[in-house]
Specification:
The chain has helices at about 1-10, 20-30, 70-80, 85-90, 115-120, 125-140, 155-160, 165-180, 190-195, 215-220, 220-230, 245, 260-265, 270-275, 310-315, 335-350, 405-434, and strands at about 15, 35-40, 50-55, 60, 65-70, 90, 95-100, 100-105, 210, 235, 250-255, 280-285, 300, 310, 320-325, 360-370, 390. With about 425 residues, the protein is an alpha/beta fold. The protein folds into 3 domains: about 1-50 and about 215-275 and about 375-434, FAD/NAD(P)-binding domain; about 100-205, protoporphyrinogen ix oxidase, domain 3; about 280-370, Alpha-Beta Complex (Polyamine Oxidase, Chain A, domain 2). The strands form 5 sheets. Strands 10-2-1-11-17 form a 5-stranded parallel beta sheet, with helices on both faces. Helix 2 (about 20-30) packs parallel to helix 11 and helix 2 runs parallel beside helix 17 (about 405-434). The relative contact order is 0.18.
Amino acid sequence: MAEHLTRANARPAVAVIGGGYAGMAAAVDLTRHGHAVEVFESGPVLGGRARRVTTQHKTFDNGQHILIGAYTQLLALMQQVGAETKQLLYRQPLTLYYPQGFHLSAWALPAPLHLASALLFARGLRFSDRWRALRLMQALQEMEFQLTTDCSVSALLTQHQQSENLRHWLWDPLCIAALNTAPEEASAQVFVHVLRDSLAGTRSASDLLLPRTDLSALFPEPAAQYVLKHGGKVHTQHPIRSLDELRQAFSHIIVAVGPHHLAQLMPEYKDVTAQFSYRPIYTVWLQYNADIQLPQPMIGLVGGATQWAFDRGVLCGESGLIGAVISAHGAHESLSKAQLIQQVHAELAPHLPTHAAPQHAQVIAEKRATIACTPHRARIDMRTTHARVFLAGDYVDADYPPTLEAAVRSGLRASAAVCAALQNTATSSAGLLI
């Protein structure tokens, strides 16, 4: 700790607890503004709840994440740290492909014509469905995407007379993918914000960006290299048990840990975090023969456990590897790993060139992947009762679902608050000198 004190006396240093997307976003932004930064990550790999894991001598992501063009802050930070988005992300116009009978693709037209054309020519929708979907988007536009009262996504869709067919293929899957919460309990206001920034945004805002690398290498590790290059420090396998370990050595602290760890560091949040409920994300990784491919890099499935499947051979060069994602609560949680692998394979098999069984498989369950994104859920502000301590994390953003973009935004807000505090301190010190 003496090393910290020596450096802190030379230049105010900021500690960031947590090396996930929120913590690394804060660290990069603080570094960019010329502040000394030290990151403390308890795990062996950076990324938090979106990271690379190694099991049985094989490497997987702990969950497959979809980025969209509207993730402007994350994309900007990737460029800042030298993570080339064109190389690390497979970009395509919004495409929802269900081999069971639905296909929607956005056209290369200016907004909002790209969305209108996608709905008008989508396969699997009746004319009345197309009209109702367009009317919903128009109504939300007229409301400036701000509801008078929050409610469930299901209630919103019922209010705007969205058909069961539309919900089955479009709205319900989008809700679960974006909010990791079932439509019957998910926040309509947060879902509307997602629609505002994606479907109702610029043409490129709705683009799908599928990672071509693992989630740690996508941003957290390049971010760490950026911090190190500019004189900061990044520690892995370095848990912080108490803020008292850092108070004397650092001018400010950003706590960027998962919500279930927050009360351990700051007991005053115990009652608030106890109100949170969590939603899981299961990823079933199936390794087939190298010549096995999905009909698209990403496909959707309905009627079973699997919601989305990703072809890692096309995306990452991992030939024959398929990642099947299951978000939110469901019957799959009661299955053993062997049973879940068998079910997911059975659901994928009709859409593969052959019905050959996978050579090996792995289930990775992130039981507390996100907090439930429900109306009127407990809110946690970025600012704390400690003047020099700020919070970051996807659960701190009240307006956006718990996504990588929400995590990054929260980290940037925490960094801005620290920068402002340091500027005020510098100004006050200069005034005293005068």
